[in-house]
Design a protein that fits this description.
This protein is an all-beta fold and about 150 residues long. It has a domain of about 90 residues: Immunoglobulins (Immunoglobulin-like). Helix content is about 0%, strand content about 40%. The protein is elongated and about 80 Å long. It is found in: Membrane. It is a single-pass type I membrane protein. One of its GO terms (molecular function) is cytokine receptor activity. Keywords: Glycoprotein, Membrane, Receptor, Signal, Transmembrane, Transmembrane helix.
């Protein structure tokens, strides 16, 4: 059955973030009613055409339980990615958790780089220029709005 397992044993508060262009960090909390020996395993699939991959670098809590994962060399596609966390315990069946996520929505962007400021005191104006940060997905120029906060000393 799809929802086999003890109620309250599936993970909670699952979230992922992509940073530094190609690193993805996912975290979760153990199900509130999960047995103490429950171990969780994360799988993700970038698109329906790709193979599901298990986490290679788990983040463990003080009891050695997998509570997160770091993925390297992540690229963002246009399809929703599929995430599934299942669990195992000697005592009971553990419910799985799954979710579809648009990866571009969880990318944490780096700040702009190569910022230059050239001011002309005679004209009483300044030219501020920068390069937009690198991102890993398409629609590169539609994603950015900048706000400049100028404070006078």
């Amino acid at each position: 059955p799809v929802f086999a397992g003890m109620n309250g044993s599936a993970i909670e508060n699952f979230s992922c973030v992509i940073y530094n262009i190609f690193l993805m960090n996912c975290t979760w909390q153990a199900g509130r009613d999960a047995p103490a020996d429950t171990q969780y395993f994360l799988y993700w699939q970038k698109s329906r055409d790709d193979e599901a991959m298990e986490c290679e670098l788990y983040i463990k809590d003080e009891n050695g339980r997998n509570m997160g994962c770091i993925f390297q060399n992540v690229s963002i596609g246009t399809a929703k990615a599929y995430f599934m966390v299942n669990g195992s315990s000697k005592d009971s069946l553990i419910q799985f958790y799954d979710e579809y996520i648009d990866l571009y929505k969880i990318e944490k962007l780096m700040p702009p780089s190569s910022i230059t400021v050239n001011c002309d005191e005679i004209k009483n104006d300044c030219i501020i220029q920068w390069q937009r940060p690198q991102i890993s997905h398409s629609n590169k120029d539609k994603c950015f709005k900048y706000e400049i906060n100028i404070k006078y000393k």
